[in-house]
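@channel anyone free to eyeball this complex?
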Amino acid sequence: MRRSAAVFAVVAAALCVVPFVAPGYKTSLATEMLIFAVLAMSIDVLAGYAGRTSLGHGAIFGIAAYVVLYYVTVAGGHPWVGAMLGLLAATAAAVVFALLAIRTSGVYFLLITLALGMIVWGICLRWTSVTGGENGLRGSVRPEWVAGPVPFYYFVLAATALMSFALWRFVHSPFGLTLRGIRESESRMRALGYDVSLHLFIGFVVSGFFAGAAGVLYAFFNSFASPATVALAQSVAALLMVLVGGVGTLVGSFVGAVAIISLENFVSFHTERWPMVLGLVFIATMIFAPEGLLGRARLVLERRSA
Amino acid sequence: MKRRSFLQTLGTTLFAMSSWTRRAFPADRGPIRIGLLSPLTGVIAAGGRELVDGFNLYWEQIGRKAGGREIEVVVEDDASNPNTALQKARRLVEQREVHMLVGDILANTGLAVAEYVKGNGVPYFIPVIAADDLTQRKRIPNVIRIAGYSASQSTRPLADYALKKGVRKVITVSQDYTFGHEQCGGFCQVFSEGGGSVLQQFWHPLNTPDFSPYLPQIQALQPDAVFAMETGADGSRFIQQWANFGLKDKIQLFTSMNATDQSIIRTLGPEAEGVISAGHFCEGRDDPANKKFVADYEKAFGKLPSIYAFSHYSGAMWLAEAFKAVGGNVEDRPRFLEAVRKVKLSASPLGREVSLDKYGNPIYDIYIRKVVRRPDGKLWNSPIEVYPGVSQFWKYDPEQYMKQPSYSREFHGIKKA
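replying in thread with the prediction:
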């Protein structure tokens, strides 16, 4: 326990000094990593704890971003109100997604969330008068006092820390345990008297809420949303972060986000065939560390101490 | 031992020489760094490659030096995705500290980058991004369309040409996004104001695999001609299916310049012959600068240049002129931007002397072009008529024109008869 506390302190300290040791672009890259880590964590709640892998979270994330941008740039509203509306819209979308998807599991769950995500993508693409169609929505929506890249980094860091703690409490609460129970055996949980559908529903909505929160941060960060923000590729990217980092760990999402975003940036700098390199890395991860980077590291450490 | 001391001496000599050259040229401010954004992966990757080739070809030809400074081009892949484009633009500016950004092909990627530079004032040059409003209603002072064009600029003369040829009834087929709305809008407005009527308009999503739902309807309506606005793979599919359905010799096909661009017709056969389009680039035009560019490009890359290569080659020329004008001092942004706006480019493949209008869009001769076979059998666009000095506002008064709404799926300035 003391060791993990020490690790935690080191990581927290490292995150706090990022703007000083890596100023400029690297700080904005770190901001992006944190935002995507939140999105990945929200997926991990379902994938790692409830055993339901969602491909629709990119859409929920994007809806929040769209709503913030629309409310602030087109309707001329206040950023914080926009943020609240974005969260609300994402949660509402999560409710709809959940109602349709929780009856299923396994590959069917994957496909239903995929289809729902595609519908959102289609709407964003075709509803030109509101979403700007292919061109998307643009405009600075960041609140005044976090306008600079460094204050904004700290803002995102604080928000991420808060949300990580909330999610950690959530998955380790008695309710979180029931989600794990559902993952292990739905029928047994039902036999024990739990309302499986209700629990999954709540789990999905909570997860959607955090995906939405990531979307709001992303809107602040990027000042831009387009159909690519809600597209399947977005969901897949976040899911890959979870898989690379380690499913069912929450912290793995951070590892995955850092690994994938820095790899993307590093490799694309040297070759235009960077998607291929990324693909090879994913395959290598699946072969040599199927439990994710974090899971692998844990295994190695355990073996050593044993 | 001997070898090591040799290397040491060599090293010190080289070092000394380099510091000597530094001292000999006190004005050495390092190279001018240009960040080039291009879709090297994604839906329009082929065009992205040609963009980079065209841009680099010019710098190679002049020895990678202009205005007394070395030119360094830093290429980044925007992955045909606006979010990636934005991220890469940030990296080029904030990490690689480029002096300016150039490039992008898809309007959505360009608009995303334009929004970013609006906040920080980094010069951004857009030889291909054609969204009308970037040089009309929503101008950004540091976004300049060097050697580029606005979407509706070239389709207006095409409508005029069609009217002159006695065409009175048209149907339009167009991709359903801003570039399509604007190109189609330019055509429809001039065509309807000149007494023609637009019978029907079809809008299809990008990457439509099959046009057979539209073609029989076109046949049934019996128009004099069809205007098709297509880019990318849609262009070649449309032209192929147009011929397969037997419409080729019955109804005259007019297209946007992108639909008969080299990037498309170099993969097509006889079905593309005879298609008429309008554009400021015309690879088959008999003009020394144009012929030289086409020949150089063909020699270097083994194919005829597309609009993407052409625009960025000319864009590089434009920048070189501006670098010369400010003596390489691109750090002084207001002066540099002013110089870019003032460039009068002559002896370029763009044709006779070209300059920007007051709103930052070039004024060109627009060629009505027909796809024909070159003596060696390759297809290319050959000019059949020229409209000299066409601006983005055609014959309208700019201020008056900008009071009408931007073209969209709903608005095409179609005059009701």
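from a first look: Residues 32-125+288-350 of chain B form a domain with the Rossmann fold fold (CATH 3.40.50.2300).
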